[in-house]
Write a structure and sequence with these properties.
2 copies of one chain form a homodimer. The first copy, chain A, has one domain: Alpha-Beta Barrel (TIM Barrel). Chain A contains 12 helices and 8 strands.
Chain lengths: 274, 274
């Protein structure tokens, strides 16, 4: 999916919501544990209940890997289910990978070929040759960690350099723009970073930003939009726990839909401003 | 395995070799493709052929993930095989993971509980709460990326800060030492970094360093030892391609053994100096 198609979906659905499929076997409703594949059953119901309210799904690989082989089967089935039933959705593998060139090429093969995700999150620490193998695919996206939503983001990402006092996350964003443009590259910026979005937009005026941290982590959608929204929206705002665990009873699908609908309604208001 | 036990193994085997199990289905000997699980068959023969010459095995998860479910099965079988047959070996899951706290906790569960690896490589970009969940396990190791072996390591890891001109990799190493000590924490430092080992030892005099980049990537074992070796060795030098793909015929096990033996002999010479 290219940038124009993504914006088209956002306009059509009046939503820039990404639903985080962080399905944890210890948190999903108990009645699902009798299913043959409880994680897939959970995801399928969440997806069916929210697909018209969001433009992207983001399974975080950690939750699947923790179940070993069964988890990978559930991940594969989940992505295939989305691709077959809702091909207009952007599927983001939240993997935060990155390794030396020949090894990153294997990760790219995994996520873009074997799993057929549309986008993958990548960690920048190892530099260009750890990221570039992911950039060799048409209509696939690299979403590079820039300024993350967690407390630890302050440990290294905000260290200012000697030369021009640029914080590390800015160096990452500027350097990465010499590797690819906004048609292939997005950045992760946490909703908890508030006014930093103004600074981010000075560095990357057009790039889509993947924004986690609304909901359970405490970020404000309004603030993110105020400082981060572009003429083509430029935002994918993720909510995971705030949607998928809204209820742990048999009504979890309806509860997730309700939570997604509330966010989508707020997003529609924000989209009117552009 | 704790630090004293690791040094004991090094002395006993006169080796600080780590064999990188980067088994690529496109590179393993053709005759193995008829096996039920070619990757496991390949690893098993490499392990049996080298186990008395090395102290650690390091499967890089990228190679297994690229095969999807079959790859995870091969990874699980490989680690179980080492644990059951050569329990004196340190098993390093080279995964380079790192995410927000609750997600890193899932990765820790994967690698330390489900797979029972002894160590996992972790990327530092997201800071303390992305690393600390891996530190909650007794006798398990976090191996944090510091100064990697690839060309891209210069992109961000060597950026000097405004305050005291400390490069990023040094900030990572110093900050991480406030989270854990040398009994739980190692660092990745590429063999290609040569004289930087002197600087590294000023920052972390006692920590074990996991050193990739000897062999295919061009690093020198002698230089690494000259600047990086401590009284308790303090080094795990990894070779992957230089050992496991020495031959792609039916003699690949014997060829791998020969390559490992040559490295081990050089290591024995270096160990005499401490």
């Amino acid at each position: 999916m290219n940038r124009a198609e993504l914006f088209e979906q956002i306009q059509k659905k009046q939503s820039f919501l990404c639903v985080g499929l962080d399905a944890d076997i210890k948190k999903i409703p108990e009645h699902l544990l009798n299913e043959e594949d409880p994680i897939f059953a959970f995801n399928k119901e969440i997806i069916d209940a929210t697909q018209d309210l969001c433009v992207a799904y983001k399974p975080n690989t950690a939750f699947y890997e923790s179940l070993g082989v069964q988890g990978w089967i559930a991940l594969e089935k989940t992505i295939t289910y989305i691709k077959e039933n809702y091909p207009e959705q952007l599927v983001i593998a939240d993997a935060k990978r990155g390794d030396i060139g020949n090894t990153s090429a294997m990760y790219a093969r995994t996520f873009f070929e074997a799993l057929d995700a549309d986008a993958v999150t990548v960690a920048p620490y190892m530099g260009e040759d750890s990221v570039s193998p992911f950039l060799g695919y048409a209509n696939k996206w690299v979403i590079l960690l820039a300024l993350t939503s967690n407390k630890g983001s302050a440990d290294f990402q905000r260290i200012e350099n000697k030369e021009n006092a640029q914080p590390l996350f800015e160096s990452v964003m500027r350097t990465a723009q010499t590797w690819a443009n906004e048609d292939q590259l997005m950045f992760v910026v946490g909703a908890t970073q508030g006014k930093a979005f103004e600074q981010i937009r000075a560095i990357a005026p057009e790039h889509f930003l993947l924004v986690p941290g609304v909901g359970a982590q405490g970020g404000s959608l309004q603030e993110v939009c105020k400082y981060g929204m572009t003429k083509q929206c430029g935002l994918l705002v993720n909510s995971s726990r705030g949607i998928i665990y809204k209820s742990n009873g048999e009504d979890f699908g309806a509860a997730a839909r309700q939570a997604a609908k509330e966010l989508q309604a707020e997003m529609a208001q924000e989209l009117k401003k552009i």
